[in-house]
């Protein structure tokens, strides 16, 4: 009996394998960043003209990739090795003639990251990278195409590799030896949703509840980092675990690529007000740091700015990772587990964008911050400061020109794409206001997460909600009056009135706010001096001092804003009025220390969020 069963089983296995299109790649055969790919069809095509395409865009990016641009040559062959006619259509498609005889496709792809792509630059976490013997990042839209209409069919991938490399992914593995890893995807959608990163193993693994979490890191300079990232992610994932009733996945993989940005780090000799400068420098270099979410994994492209910026918390690797990790993980809730049919039946060639970015990105970014606050990763005041900065930036959204849903639906058009970054700013604040409104209308019985968990379990990963009726479906879960909120602020072109919602949470929004703040000797509003920036602006030179100068500065002094921060915030705590700050100043090319007595004064701030009740 046993034998027979085995034979039957083998028969079944062969049958399933035969039904899959099969790809073969040998990572040893990389040649000058160009990788050959061979595909074997599971069955002859039914039509004599078929189209093989690469994605114009992939879910989660809200941007154009045109991956077909990186396919260098594509040959279609019959079983006996004859070439069929192939015509390239646009950026992404190949039209194959006499296709009923098609047995193999052979093509080469070039990696994306080190290519200078001006138009439609591809965000690094969705790009590909090939470094012989060291690193292969497969974001699969850049490597594998699909026959139109067959996106739901299973695919098998066979990858021969150098022994020192290991491919980390959340795709199921069928073969795993020192020289070969094979994977299967139940559909093209799953393949696109499952990046693979081959690198010399630098990994860590841990459990959060019942979820197995794997971290795989590739650092260009070979610095081992997984053990340290484990500490960061364990803390963050524990905060997520405390927020959700259950983590909704069995396994989750963090794929992290750390690049060397020491040059940029060194260029920024000074250290305060940095984030803006870093963003500016990166925009100049057209490089996108950040991450992209997937169902069971997320991909990170992070910058090591080197020792020059080592003590600047905002740009540290830990901060980059922690800033993104909870956000990416929370995407499991939405859009991965709650999305409209425009995402569920994603059209890779002519994508139709959904109007619900307020949900997919806005609410996710809000939750990421809320989780950090509730989980104790940040303090209540840090939380409010973060949301306040999003609110201030959210005020730049051209609210009378476009509604949030309109921006979302047209996000691939340039005028609207310019506002995409607002999903993390205005979108996150809309999430916060919506949460407060739900709690207010239900007298605290329900909050946003409760409502979304109900909807998430109604739909989930494989079932899409209706683009047009989703908002009223959400409103039905809460209170009829909630519709007003959506009509005014999400679908409408009205400026928000934060106190209408936030007061219920004990938070107050102030247009203007008088607060006692430390006076800065380097601010011409606070001290009687004129300054000039040097280089990128971290160092400043005192050009002139007036009669009311109070810190002991003289014309010609050079000050570094980071030294100032260290002087007034020793041990991370601000000095009090009357205490003495030891301030380093460069005078006549020598460093001297000034004893500066700390002063406070009333300052007026705009657009401020404050706790009304002690949290
Ligand atoms: Zn996101």
Report what the structure shows.
With 615 residues, the protein is an alpha+beta fold. It has 3 domains: 18-201, Immunoglobulin-like (Sandwich); 225-508, Neutral Protease Domain 2 (Neutral Protease, domain 2, Orthogonal Bundle), CATH 1.10.390.10; 520-598, Pdz3 Domain. It is 29% helix and 27% strand. It is built from 18 helices and 28 strands. The strands form 7 sheets. The chain has an 8-stranded mixed β-sheet with strand order 5-4-8-2-1-12-15-14. A hairpin with a 4-residue loop joins strand 4 and strand 5. The longest helix is centred in the middle third of the chain and has 18 residues, at 226-243. It is globular, with a radius of gyration of 27 Å. Zinc ion binds at residues 293, 327, 331, 361, 364.
Brief sketch in words of this structure:
29% of the residues lie in helices and 27% in strands.
């Amino acid at each position: 009996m046993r034998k027979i069963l085995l034979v039957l089983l083998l028969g079944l296995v062969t049958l399933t394998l035969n039904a899959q299109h099969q790809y073969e790649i040998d990572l040893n055969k990389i040649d000058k960043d160009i990788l050959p790919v061979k595909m074997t069809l599971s069955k002859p095509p039914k039509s004599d003209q078929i189209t093989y395409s690469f994605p114009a865009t992939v879910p989660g990016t809200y941007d154009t990739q045109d991956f077909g641009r990186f396919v260098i040559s594509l040959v279609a062959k019959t079983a006996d090795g004859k070439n069929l006619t192939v015509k390239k259509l646009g950026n992404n498609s190949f039209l194959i003639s006499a296709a009923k005889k098609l047995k193999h496709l052979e093509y080469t792809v070039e990696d994306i990251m080190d290519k200078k792509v001006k138009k439609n630059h591809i965000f690094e976490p969705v790009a590909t990278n090939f470094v012989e013997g060291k690193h292969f990042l497969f974001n699969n839209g850049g490597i594998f195409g699909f026959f139109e209409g067959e996106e739901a069919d299973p695919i098998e991938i066979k990858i021969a590799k150098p022994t020192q490399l290991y491919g980390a992914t959340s795709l199921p593995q069928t073969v795993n030896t020192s020289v070969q890893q094979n994977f299967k995807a139940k559909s093209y959608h799953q393949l696109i949703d499952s990046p693979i990163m081959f690198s010399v193993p630098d990994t860590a693994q841990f459990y959060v509840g019942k979820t197995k979490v794997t971290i795989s890191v590739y650092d260009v300079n070979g610095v081992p980092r997984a053990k340290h990232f484990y500490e960061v992610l364990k803390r963050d994932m524990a905060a997520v675990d405390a927020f959700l009733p259950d983590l909704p996945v069995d396994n989750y993989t963090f794929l992290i690529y750390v690049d060397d940005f020491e040059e940029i780090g060194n260029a920024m000799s000074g250290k305060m007000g940095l984030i803006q400068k870093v963003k500016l420098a990166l925009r100049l270099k057209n490089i996108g740091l950040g991450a992209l979410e997937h169902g069971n994994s997320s991909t990170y492209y992070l910058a090591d700015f080197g020792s020059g910026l080592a003590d600047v918390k905002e740009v540290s690797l830990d901060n980059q990772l922690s800033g993104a990790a909870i956000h990416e993980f929370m995407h499991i809730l939405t859009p991965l587990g709650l999305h409209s049919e425009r995402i569920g039946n994603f059209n890779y060639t002519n994508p139709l964008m959904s109007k619900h970015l307020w949900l997919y990105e806005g609410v996710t970014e809000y939750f990421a911050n809320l989780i950090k606050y509730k989980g104790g990763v940040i303090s209540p005041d840090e939380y409010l400061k973060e949301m306040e900065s999003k609110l201030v930036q959210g005020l730049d959204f051209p609210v009378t020109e476009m509604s949030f849903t309109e921006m979302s639906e047209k996000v691939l058009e340039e005028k609207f794409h310019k506002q995409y970054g607002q999903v993390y700013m205005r979108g996150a604040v809309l999430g916060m206001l919506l949460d407060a409104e739900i709690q207010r209308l239900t007298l605290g019985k329900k909050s946003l997460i409760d409502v979304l968990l109900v909807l998430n379990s109604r739909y989930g990963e494989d079932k899409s909600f209706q683009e047009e009726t989703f908002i009223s479906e959400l409103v039905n879960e809460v209170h009829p009056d909630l519709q007003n909120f959506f009509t005014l602020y999400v679908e409408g072109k009205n400026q928000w009135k934060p106190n209408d919602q936030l007061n219920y949470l004990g938070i107050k929004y102030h247009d203007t706010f008088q607060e006692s703040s430390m006076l800065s000797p380097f601010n011409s509003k606070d001290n009687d001096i004129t300054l000039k920036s040097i280089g990128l602006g971290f160092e400043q030179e005192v050009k002139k001092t007036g009669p009311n100068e109070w810190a002991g500065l003289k014309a010609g002094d050079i000050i570094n804003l980071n030294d100032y921060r260290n002087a007034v915030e020793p041990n991370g705590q601000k000095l009090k009025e009357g205490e003495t700050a030891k301030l380093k100043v460069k005078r006549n090319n020598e460093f001297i220390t000034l004893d500066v007595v700390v002063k406070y004064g009333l300052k007026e701030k705009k657009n401020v969020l404050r706790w009304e009740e002690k949290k």
